TrEMBL record:
Lineage of producing organism: Eukaryota, Viridiplantae, Streptophyta, Embryophyta, Tracheophyta
Family per similarity comment: Belongs to the DESIGUAL family.
Segments of this protein annotated with the region Disordered: 148-169
This protein's name: Uncharacterized protein
One GO location term (cellular component): endomembrane system
TM annotation in the entry: 25-48, 68-89, 109-131
Record membrane topology: Multi-pass membrane protein
Amino acid sequence: MQPPYGTPIKGKDVVICKFPSDPTIAMGSLSIVALVLAAFIGHVAIFYPYKGKSVPRGALFQSTSLSVFFVIAELVSALAFAMLLWATITEGRHRTSNIHHDMDTLCPTAKTGLFGGAAFLALDAALFWLVCQMLALNARADYLDEDEDEDDKGEYGQVYATDADGTKV
């Protein structure tokens, strides 16, 4: 669905575009804020200390899948941010610069496909950040299990079997 074109009002040597009221600029701005928050929270979720123990970045990114998904999340977030910003600014400029000296102006608005594509990329970015968080949890668990000196489950290979009467063998 294309946002409605403005209504051209012809004057002497100018065309003034009157646009109907719609929330496109507000929604675009809110989408930008939500995307920035999702990317920020994604970074915090990956790099914040786990159970009070920090994990070096090198240990986190030894996981190839985490490295790949992290780069994809960064790229998709940046592309979604650029597209959202572009569409929102373009729509804002169309609405504020509404006096044109070209008498054939049709009072354009920003392209809906640009907003839709940017919204889809923003959703993808949030999902990639979620996958990165899960992969970071796995990488942290692997790193912290290797560094654990004390294990409350006993030594490796130490197995107790019980007799029928309940005594350890």
